[in-house]
Design a protein that fits this description.
Blueprint: E1 4-9, H1 13-22, E2 29-35, H2 39-49, E3 53-55, H3 58-62, E4 69-72, H4 79-88, E5 92-96, H5 103-116, E6 120-123, H6 131-140, E7 147-157, H7 175-191, E8 197-204, E9 211-219, E10 225-231, E11 233-244, E12 247-251, E13 263-268, E14 271-276, H8 283-293, H9 307-324
Parallel strand pairs: 1-2, 1-4, 2-3, 4-5, 5-6, 7-10
Antiparallel strand pairs: 7-11, 8-9, 9-10, 11-12, 12-13, 13-14
Helix pairs in contact: 1-8, 4-5, 5-9, 7-9
The protein binds NADP nicotinamide-adenine-dinucleotide phosphate.
Length: 332
């Protein structure tokens, strides 16, 4: 496995979390550089996270020949632009979710990534955790019978902070893009196919012009039906449940699994079993290692995000946004 030297494109909240993850695997990866639109912000971040190089523009970081791979954590609307620029600069790419604003943008990115022959993965850190492989094994073993219903939720109440990227239409924000995308990717993972019908209803904020809370339903060719709830203006416990013809599986901590709390509760035919999935890595460090482990293939293996998975995901998000009547400014 190659020891990758990482560069961070943007120095926001999640970039800090990613840098903290990288710091736990110093023998396997290095956080070499960070870029922000403002040099002093990049320098402050570099000092805090002990990053050797700080740049006052993303372009300068892409020009750094020592940077092997970039972690892009700009607002959603800028993911495509910086993925394309990074690919053209010959950098391997881990780009935050949702990987672009919409499917056509992702198709453009994939064309460039293929041409430039670099690694590219949507940063759904939760998918890199082994509990999903275990979940699919339990389903395949037939313990709960045929999968019939998939149910999930990811929502929180951040208040109406209109300056936040999550409440910005021009930056391709909204609850579906921010957290509903986890639910959608979970439903698609369990169904193992793309939905034939996607509907969502949402409260679109008058000021934010994005979905502040929403609920959706998906129907899959095999007969699996899925429902989800998401939002940035309503609190709800996280949920990821699979109901089959003979039983059910509850994923106790779907979106932020850790060694202490990654459990599958499998109930079938009057018996309940709890399966703990331990692996001893930081969630974000694991994501960086997933890149290094699959570098030569240029994309991840399932259950992490493959290119096809990301494309199916973006098409589903597009269909859900269409049904809730939400267009981003960049799509007008
Ligand atoms: N996987 C996860 O666990 C997870 C969690 C949270 C968020 N995310 C994703 O990560 C991305 C960033 O989220 P975040 O929570 O880190 O947001 P954030 O704290 O607001 O950071 C966003 C960064 O984007 C940069 N940026 C560039 N152009 C901008 C513009 N026009 N307006 C505002 N910011 C701009 C800013 O970087 P500089 O000022 O530093 O240049 C800012 O630091 C989003 O795509 C989000 O979906 C993923």
């Amino acid at each position: 496995m190659k020891h990758l030297k990482w560069g961070l494109v943007a120095a926001g909240r999640i970039a800090g979390r990613f840098a903290t993850g990288l710091a736990t695997i110093k023998d396997q990866a290095t956080c070499l550089a960070v870029a922000a639109r403002d040099l002093s912000k990049a320098q402050k971040f570099a000092e805090e996270h002990k990053v050797a190089r700080a740049y006052g523009s993303y372009d300068e970081l892409l020009a750094d020949k020592d940077v092997d791979a970039v972690y892009i954590s700009t607002p959603n609307s800028l993911h495509a632009e910086w993925s394309i620029k990074a690919a053209k600069a010959g950098k391997h790419i881990l780009c935050e979710k949702p990987v672009t604003s919409n499917a056509p943008e992702l198709q453009k990115v994939l064309r460039v990534v293929k041409k430039c022959d670099v690694f590219f993965m949507e940063a759904f850190m939760y998918r890199c955790h082994p509990q999903w492989k275990k979940l699919l094994e339990v389903i395949k073993a037939g313990t709960i019978g045929e999968v019939r219903i998939v149910q999930s939720a990811f929502a929180f109440n951040m208040g109406l902070q209109l300056e936040n990227i999550r409440l910005s239409n021009p930056l391709a924000g909204g609850g579906l893009m921010d957290v509903g995308c986890y639910c959608v990717s979970f439903c698609r993972l369990v169904a193992g196919e793309e939905p034939v019908s996607c509907h969502a209803v949402a409260h679109i904020g008058k000021q934010s012009r994005v979905d502040e809370y929403a609920t959706g339903v998906l129907q899959f060719p095999s007969g699996v039906v899925a429902t989800f709830a998401c939002g940035t203006q309503c609190g709800t416990p996280s949920a990821a449940n699979v109901y089959g013809s003979k039983g059910s599986i509850v994923v106790t901590n779907p979106w932020f699994p850790s060694d202490e709390n990654a459990k599958l509760i499998v109930s079938a035919e009057g018996k309940t079993e709890t399966i703990e999935v331990k692996y001893g890595r930081d969630l974000y460090a694991n994501e960086a290692l997933t890149v290094a482990e699959n570098l030569r293939r240029r994309q991840a293996r399932p259950t992490a995000m493959t290119w096809a998975d990301s494309l199916g995901q973006m098409k589903t998000l597009d269909a859900l946004r269409k049904s809730m009547g939400l267009k981003f400014d960049c799509e007008r």
